[in-house]
Design a protein that fits this description.
This protein has twelve helices and 14 strands. It has 360 residues and is α/β, with parallel strands linked by helices. The strands form three sheets. It has a ten-stranded mixed beta sheet, sandwiched between helices. Strand 11 and strand 12 form a beta hairpin. The structure holds 3-isopropylmalic acid (IPM) and magnesium ion (MG). 3-isopropylmalic acid binds next to helix 4.
Length: 360
């Protein structure tokens, strides 16, 4: 089959990790007889350098014409990069938020899984990591604090900054349905995470999630406050199947969940709208400190490419093959620096990409 894939290398380590993920996709094409036409798109700092803004209409329109988009990472070093001399709405991150909103990518799936092979890299106590874990964070991505009205002003000579956290029942309902749908294909458990003991938006969140749950009698629903969830993730991560949560909580909890898998370099993500289209990116950032040094772990991006195959192109067998190739590489003892442990073979970004592509 022929598919159109948009590619956003982005900033920092973005170009190198995307290059490695493309090797894997090319291996999939060769093995299964598909043909991908890649179109490179500018976003974030890379777009600022060329167009002066982090996101253009051209990028949005071209992305819309693709079956899916694979992205690296966005952003630079806030202390040294000239991008951060620009006003906040012109900085690299604004481009990422802008494309999420423009393409209505409200459902952000972030799976966190502990590979047996990476148990040594897991920072949790042995008795906790022994139970393993396999969870999926369903993060709402186009609402809440990220997109509410904000302003900074001076009131009676005092600087005041305001961000607004708002959710409509429509927004909550559609992301809740996504969480329940995916739970039906997993272990049929949804833990909805909120701060309903304090926030109105969380109280509405809880009510609407309860209403949606009635349509899914087979799924066991529980609720958890976000502070407790942050603790449970390191105390007993095995309890979680699908975690459903709003934008900001999901941002924070997904970094935590990724780190307990051994490294933030392992966590993939898919951002989906109501159609088959999706934007696929690692959950981690652009790590400008190690950019261009062949040190970055490309696995999160390669696993994001597997999600692209699965969710946007319905190529389940191909996605399984990519995930198996990653596992095989780990089983054979290959590690990038971030997941390195004794007795393993340390490799760079490029070699890791080569060896995973070769195992597809
Ligand atoms: C993420 C990132 C982004 C976010 C930043 C770069 C704006 O941290 O995808 O988790 O907060 O959503
Ligand atoms: Mg984040």
């Amino acid at each position: 089959m022929d598919y159109r894939i948009g590619v956003i290398p982005g900033d920092g380590i973005g170009p190198e990790i995307v290059r490695e993920a493309r090797k894997t996709l090319d291996a999939v094409c060769a093995k299964y007889g598909h043909h991908f036409t890649y179109t490179e798109l500018l976003l974030g700092g890379a777009s600022i350098d060329v167009h002066g803004v982090p996101l253009t209409e051209g990028t949005i329109e071209t992305a819309k014409g693709c079956d899916a988009v694979l992205m690296g990472s966005i952003g630079g070093d806030a202390k040294t990069s000239p991008w951060y001399q620009l006003p906040p709405d012109k900085r690299p991150e604004a481009g990422l938020l802008g494309i999420r909103k423009a393409l209505n990518l409200f459902a952000n799936l972030r799976p966190a899984y502990l590979y047996d092979e990476l148990r040594a890299a897991c920072p949790l106590r042995d008795d906790i990591s022994a139970a393993g874990f396999d969870m999926l964070i369903m993060r709402e991505l186009t609402g809440g604090l990220y997109f509410g009205a904000r302003r900074t002003e001076e009131v009676d000579g005092v600087r005041v900054a305001t961000d607004t956290l708002s959710y409509s029942e429509t927004e909550i309902c559609r992301i809740a349905k996504r969480a329940f749908d995916i739970a039906m294909k997993r272990r049929k458990k949804v833990c909805s995470v909120d701060k309903a003991n304090v926030l109105d938006s969380s109280r509405l969140w809880r009510q609407v999630v309860e209403e949606v749950a009635k349509e899914y009698p087979e799924v066991a629903l529980s609720h958890m406050y976000v502070d407790n969830c942050a603790m449970q993730l390191v105390m007993n991560p095995a309890q979680f199947d699908v975690i459903l949560t709003e934008n900001m909580f999901g941002d924070i909890l997904s970094d935590e969940a990724s780190m307990v898998t051994g490294s933030i370099g392992m966590l993939s993500s898919a951002s989906l709208n109501e159609t088959k289209f999706g934007l696929y990116e690692p959950s981690h950032g652009s790590a400008p400190d190690i950019a261009g040094q062949d040190k970055a772990n490309p696995i999160a991006t390669i696993l994001s490419a597997a999600m692209l195959l699965r969710y946007s192109l319905d190529l389940d067998e191909e996605a399984d093959a990519v995930e198996a190739a990653v596992r095989q590489g780990l089983k054979e003892g290959y590690r990038t620096g971030d997941i390195m442990s004794e007795g393993c073979t340390q490799v760079g970004t490029c070699e890791m990409g080569d060896l995973i592509a070769a195992r597809v």
